[in-house]
Structure prediction request, 331 residues.
Amino acid sequence: IMEGIMMMGVEGIKKTILHGGTGEKPKFVTGTKVTFHFRTQLCNDERTVIDDSKKAGMPIEMVIGNLFKLDVWEILLMSMHIGEVAEFCCDVIHPIVAKSLRRIAVGKDPVDRHIHTCGMVNMFAYHSLGYDDLDELQKEPQPLYFVMELLKVWTFKSWALNESGTCGQGNKLFKQGRYDDTTLKYKEAIMCIKNVQTKEKAWEAPWLRLEKMANTLTLNYCQCLLCMEEYYEVIEHTTDIINQHPGAMKAFYLRGKAHMEVWNEAEARDDFMSVLDLDPGMKKTIKKELAVLKMRMELKNEEDRLKYKAFCVSKHKLHGNSTCPTLYALT
Prediction:
């Protein structure tokens, strides 16, 4: 076991190895996934614990260069061997307060999907990260201790490409109704595939293989978004795929479903007919979807008609108008 205090060659960071790791130091390139535990403590006599991922009962996963963009954390992890436990003292010159880390430390999705305003906008608007102690650190930064345990390092090929094949783990989470967990995994894999794709020559065989993987994951991601009622995001992502790949039948189908949910009748009908053109074997499914679309639109039109009639009756009573052609037309 190697113990001791050493400077890491980065200003404002001291490292103490509490338990040495094994093997050679991993290569931490962009897209590498790391699995680890962390504990955050104040630099006071009590070493007050702010966050502890072990309390959530599960380790944290982070993709180097992509997921949280908290550079100092990448510096800490990239100094470690697999199996190593180390304590880091970080000075105030490093930005070390992040709402996303608080959320994952207590076992939550780092992105609150029920808030459609980005965290940075919220912070400027309300001067708050949503947690009193983090707000205090944001206002008056102070040194912090981090205890990190590096559990596993996954190269891009060993995790993203594998996940993009059958998406077995994502499918399992989807069947369990764990849509937040599923979308997070899909997003990580998509980001990594796109990153690797930029290093390939566009439209050549390796690039096309990665494109197919990314599209498969994106469509699975959109299927989760449909269940989460994020219809406009589904329309955005599927449209991007269709613009690049007009033969993507599943993209037309999911976009048609999303259009139907937001009452875009003509667009939904066009997308469903495109599915039928691309795959006549979908005739039975599309016939059912078109029947549902017709029924939903008839119900909505009737509901709108009744609302408008009620509005006219209310207006008629308010103004005491004895003649209301619109009212008579609606009866």
